[in-house]
Structures are given as C-alpha cells and as structure tokens.
Amino acid sequence: MKSREQEYRELFMAEALEAYDAMSQHMSVLEKRPGDEGALNEVFRLLHNLKANARAMGHDAIGEVAHRMETIFGQIRSKERPFAGSMVPVLFSGIDVLGGMIRAVGANQELTENLPLIENLDRVIEGEEPVLLDDDESGSEEDATRKLELSDLVYIPIKKLDHLLNLVGELIIDRDRVLTLAQEIGDTTLQTVTAHLSRLADDLQYSVMDARLVGVGTLFNKFPRVVRDVATAEQKQVELTISGQDIQIDRNILQIITDSLLHLVRNAIGHGLETPEERVKAGKPEIGQLVLSAQTDRDNVLIRISDDGRGVDVERVRRKAVDRGLLTREAAARLNETEVHNLLFEAGFSTAEQVTEISGRGVGLDVVKLAIDSLGGQLRVDSKLGQGTTFTLVLPTSIAVKGALLFELDGHPYALPLMHTDSVVSLAPEKLHVVGGTLLAKVLTENIPVVRLADLLADNDDALLPANRAALTGAQDIIITNYNGRKLGLIVDRFLRQQDIVIKPVSQPLDMIDLFGGVTLLGSGQVCLVLDVPAITRLFLSRRP
C-alpha cells in the first residue's frame, strides 16, 4: 500500500509534468506571437501554481526558479517589457531547467539550485542584459534528440468512477446470490470457485472505493480565504487552525458536505465568536480561535468545527423554542442540555437578533442536518457557555457500500445501517417497565424508550398507545439505535447477521414512505428494505404519549 507521502509526490509529479508540457507549448506560441495575451496569462498561471505546489511539497529549488519566471511574466503582462530579445532564450532555458527538476523529483534525486540560471533571471527582472549560457542555445543536438515523457497518472471524471462503482455494486449482489446457491447445492468445486470470486469481488470493490478517496484537505484548504472574508464582514478577528488534511474520504461525500461545512464555519464566526471588544471584557484574547479538523474513528470520518466563543446559551434557546411555539414552557424546562442543543437543528430555528448576510435568514442548521442525514451520518454539538462550541460531523468513508445489521420482522428481512446502531440486546419482558405510557428498558445505566417496530410501522396513530408489556412473551431481541444523541430500542422478531450491503434507491410507490432509506438485494434473492433511523426516531417522537 502506498504511503501518503508517495501519493502526494505522484500527484505533484502528474500536475507538474502537465504544467511543464503546457508551458512549453505556450512558449512556442509566444515566440511566434509575443503579444498573445491568452498564452501569456496561461504561462503566468501555470508558473504561479507550480511555485505554490513545489513550496508546499518542500521542493524549494523548483519554487525559486518558478517564482522568478512568474515575476518576469508578470512584467510582460503589465506591458513593462516585451517578450523579445535576450530574455527569450533565458526563459526557454528556465522551462527546460524546471522540467529537469520535476523529473528529478520523480526519480527521488536530490535537487540543487541552478545558480547561473537564477542569476540570469534576476538580471532580467532588474532590466539588465543576461549572460548567454550554454541549458540558452536553442536548436542544439541535445534539444533535437530530447525524449518525450508521459505522466504515470491519469485524470478520470468522477462520473466514470460513479458508473464503475454502480457496476461493482451489482457484481457484489450477484456474488452473494452465487455464494448462497453454491452452499445450497453443496458442490465443493463450485464452492472453491465462488470463494475465489468472492475475494476478487472484494478486491475490486475496495480498489474502486479507494480510487474515489480524496484528502479532506482539498476542501479544508479553501477555508482560510472564507474565514478572512467572513471575519472582515463581521468585524471580528479570527485565527483559523486546520488539521487532518490527509484524512481520506469519498469524494462524493466531500461534495455533499461542502455547503454544510461552509455554513457551520460562517455560523461559528457570526454566532459563536465575539467581537474583539466583547472578548476583552470576557477576559479573552482579542483574536478568536477557529479550528477545522478531521480524524478517523473506526469506519467513520469525524470532521469538527470548534470555536472558543460565547457558547450556546441554553436558557436563551429554551425561551426561543417557547416563543416560536415549538414547545410549551413546561416541556422546555424538562429538557436536558443535549436535548436543548438538538433544538438548534429544528427548521427555521435561529437565535440571531439581526438578519445579516452571514446568519439569521432562517436557513440554518436544519439544512445542514438534512444533508448529513442523507449520507447516513450524524451531527453532534457540544458547547459550554462562555467557552465555545464544537460541531462534529460523523460521516461514513463511502456511501456506496455500508455495514448493516440484518434482522427479521413478520417473516421479511430488513436492514439497519451500523452507523446508527448503538448495540443489540435480548431482554426478558420483566426487564422492561412502563413509565408515563412509554415502555422503557434499562441498558447498563440508561433507561431507553423501547417500541415494537411492527407497531411503529403500522399505519395507525394509536398503535403505540398504551404501551403493553403483557403482550410480550419470551426474550425480546432489541436493536438500540442512536440518532442525534437520542437512543431508541426497536423490538424485532430475530437478529439475522451483520454484513456489507449495496444500497439502491427505493422505487415507486415505496419512495413515498420516508421510513425507508433504500433497498438492497440479499444473496437469497430477497429484496430487503433499509430502515431510515432518523425518520423512525422522528415518527416515534411524534407518536409517543
């Protein structure tokens, strides 16, 4: 398996060689048409990007040459001097030197500065006449016999990878069916072949998934400018710290959370961080701290947005919820801190006193939460008044193949994503008790509300009332789900197994029922509905006494 350093070097090589080829082409155009603005702009842009990428990778020798050449082309673009005379062979020589340095990086060779070239470039920058060197004689025998090289990397449109992953998903489904059939027949030769097919399918699946992975830094690195602009608009001083840029995640997931992350960062600056004057009064430094980080947690990626601002005022949120008619005053008073934080995710909920370009327009954290839910992820908030707030996005590394718990209900198989599965327990009816019309189970130190999933799925608003423990006989298989910090026990007929599944969209007419997040096909050929835990939890809360 390649190291991250090797992957970054290969990516740098691919982009750098592409830039080198493009610059060589544009230089040839400029030699014929010195005033070609399109070619001038492209060479300037390519040199600027090469300089930045080389310095980021620690290849300072490349960065020094690219920087000087960028300066010269900046002078040419601004009409300070023409692309003509003795500077032309020096610039061609600079392109050749850059190409040699890039190839040296690919060969793991040590880079050294080309001092004669750098001195010549400095002379050109200062308007002095350069000294004619040998890497400067155009049309030499070495130039005429130069070999052409192609990059070892290719660029693939994401749509092609999406299509390939869909095909792999179909293959996985058929593989499971073949494995089941081989076990039923009992033919050892067929079982050996299908076992090999299974390994190949797994390798292909993970190879395609790996090809779709990108570092979260591709998104994170766009935020320094965002933070600067928002902080300026809000008249606040903010220092941004970024970490975990090399954490890998599916590119489509990164695309889906882009707007959510942007909103959370703006929210942290607009709502969370105080003005310099307010911070000084609170005994804090004038400059607010904002941290954007990523880390892995088993099969998930955790992305956190933390600020050291004013924190969430729990009592203020309670009052807002009551004022907006979301809760009665008595119900709001009974909420614990986590439940109050969850109110921030209600549609249209905002504590902003003023509507600004940054916050308070009623398009808030509910939109962010819906985006995370669509991925099968979770959004958590932790806050301390006067100390700051942290939003945590719990995301799967891939949205194509998910781990799931299979279970049976009324003779039919169902699947529940492991992302929302806290634990599974089997309890005797006497271990359950009714409080206020709600069935509760004590699991470890927690009292968790429990409901028969069959009752919850029934098209009857009164199906849950009242809770009846006497109707339960024998040990009850219970799946403890966890959504947004709220746990719910689902009583099912029996557990089946845990396995990776390929989730397909639900077709008509089931697509009208939001309790199902998709469908998968089992090895037996059975169609298996995938439960949507957020929707199940919301349904339970709407029906509970």
UniProtKB/TrEMBL annotation:
It comes from Hymenobacter jeollabukensis. This is Chemotaxis protein CheA. GO terms for molecular function: ATP binding; phosphorelay sensor kinase activity. Residues 149-399 form the Histidine kinase domain. GO terms for cellular component: cytoplasm. PROSITE patterns: CHEW (PS50851), HIS_KIN (PS50109), HPT (PS50894). Its EC number is 2.7.13.3. InterPro entries: Bact_Chemotaxis_CheA (IPR051315), CheA-like_dim (IPR004105), CheA-like_homodim_sf (IPR037006), CheW-like_dom_sf (IPR036061), CheW-lke_dom (IPR002545), HATPase_C_sf (IPR036890), HATPase_dom (IPR003594), His_kinase_dom (IPR005467).
